[in-house]
Design a protein that fits this description.
This protein is mostly helical. The protein is 58% helix and 3% strand. A two-stranded antiparallel ribbon has the order 1-2. Helix 2 packs parallel to helix 6 and helix 3 runs antiparallel to helix 6. It starts with a helix and ends with a helix.
Length: 116
């Protein structure tokens, strides 16, 4: 799938897939919200509102209030691509969230996921 298609996908269709992935592995919606708010600076209330809107996934990241300064510490592969080597800044932000949810689903502690 090309990047522009990913950017144009509705947040309300993509984010529930991340929630479901984590919940299948015994993690909670609140934990997914915690990693998302840590990364983007949005609040849980913002996320709830976006799930009821037509906001695109790309715009969700483009308009993020405050990308966490420690996001550069996120390392590893998502879909066979190392997140630290992704050149497109928007795609890299999207993959950062994918990686955080992957770590959550794999059972990492919140302290390690949030790079504390």
């Amino acid at each position: 799938m090309d990047d522009e298609k990913v950017f144009a996908m509705p947040f309300s269709k993509v984010y529930p897939l991340l929630l479901a992935k984590a919940e299948r592995k015994g993690r909670t919606r609140e934990e997914v919200y915690a990693v998302t708010t840590w990364l983007t600076g949005y609040t849980a209330a913002d996320l709830e509102r976006f799930l009821e809107s037509d906001l695109s996934y790309g715009d969700f990241f483009r308009n993020a209030p405050c990308l966490n300064e420690n996001c550069a510490l996120i390392r590893g592969s998502v879909c066979g691509v190392k997140v630290e080597t992704i050149e497109d800044p928007l795609l890299q932000k999207i993959r950062y969230l994918d990686k955080l949810v992957d770590e959550l689903a794999k059972g990492k502690t919140m302290d390690k996921i949030l790079r504390k």
